[in-house]
Amino acid sequence: MPLRPYIVGNWKMHGTRAMLSEARAIDRAAQRHMKVEVALAPPYTLIHPIHREAEQIMVGAQDCHHEEGGAHTGDISASMVADAGAKFVILGHSERRQNHGESDATVRAKAEAAFAAGLRVIMCVGETEDIREDGRALDHVKAQLKASLPESIEDAGERLTVAYEPVWAIGTGKTATPADIAEMHADIRALLVELLGEEHGREVRILYGGSVKPENAGEILSTPEVGGALVGGASLTADSFMGIALAA
Ligand code: PEP
Questions:
Q1: Residues 112-131: what's their mean pLDDT?
Q2: Burial (CB count within 10 angstroms: exposed 0-12, middle 13-18, buried 19+), residue 33
Q3: Nearest protein Cα to ligand 1, atom 7
Q4: What is the ipTM of this complex?
């Protein structure tokens, strides 16, 4: 059975306890729109407070370290975010790859740790503008995905989600065309089937991310092979975020 559309908010480095009222409003709205799975990845500091109150939305983390514990000042392990109430973790976001020099191998090690801690993983992949202009977007994204995924993933259909996020579309107001999204998602789907087998490879949801807003969500979410959206800026208020969820 196909999983429900998945709408995930990435709050990035936004949000103090004053934002809990927005999370509550998102949770209340999600209770009225159960045909969509709504999730939020707030900063680490808000995972537990949101988890404690939320009745419907799933709470996740925006990253985790690949080791279980140790001398890693400022880092947080997968089991720690799970202990705080996270059910999933976003990995390989382009801001982590760019700002923290995360390689595919690092992202893969983090994914292994996350799955071992019982978390679901949203694996982000995407090309830069230069790569797209060079005509290498499809090959680049597939190579990135293959190198970032663990060798074997139990219950991959349920526990793995892929987010295609063109780097040039994140936070810029630009979005990929429906034709480009459809082409990329079809290629990602084919790769998932090759790597995970027919059954699991077809179940994994592939999200689109990059300047999704209530105004463009309907068109993006009805594009073939788009199983939901990863939303940054527009997830910061319940009105705009749930406007996107309603379009699914
Ligand atoms: C993101 O951070 O994953 C993202 C898609 O951001 P925005 O929606 O702001 O482009």
A1: 98
A2: middle
A3: 232
A4: 0.98
**CA triplet 194, 199, 201: central angle to 5 degrees?**
40
Tokens of 144: 């990135």
Query: What is the mean pLDDT of the segment spanning 37-65?
Result: 98
The answer to whether the CB of 149 falls within 8 A of the CB of 195 is yes
- Which residue has 């059910």 as its token pair? 87
Tell me how far apart the alpha carbons of residues 40 and 26 are, in angstroms, rounded to a whole number: 9
Nearest residue (by CA) to ligand 1, atom 6, is 232
Looking at residues 161-189, what average pLDDT do you find? 97
The verdict on residue 149 lying in a domain is yes
pLDDT of residue 3: 80
Give CA–CA dist 193/210, Å, rounded.
Answer: 25
- The domain of 155 spans 6-247
Catalytic residue among 51, 93, 185, 200: 93
Q: Is residue 213 part of a domain?
A: yes
Task: Check: CB of residue 217 under 8 Å from CB of residue 239.
Answer: no
Structural domain includes residue 1: no
The total of structural domains in the chain comes to 1
Q: Assess whether 100 carries a catalytic annotation.
A: no
| CATH number of the structural domain spanning residue 50 | 3.20.20.70
Of the residues 12, 93, 162, 170, which should be mutated to test ligand 1's pocket, given the most ligand atoms within 8 Å of the CB?
170
Query: Residue 89 pairs with which residues in a beta bridge?
Result: 61, 121
pLDDT at 1: 60
For residues 20 and 49, the answer to whether their CB atoms sit within 8 Å is yes
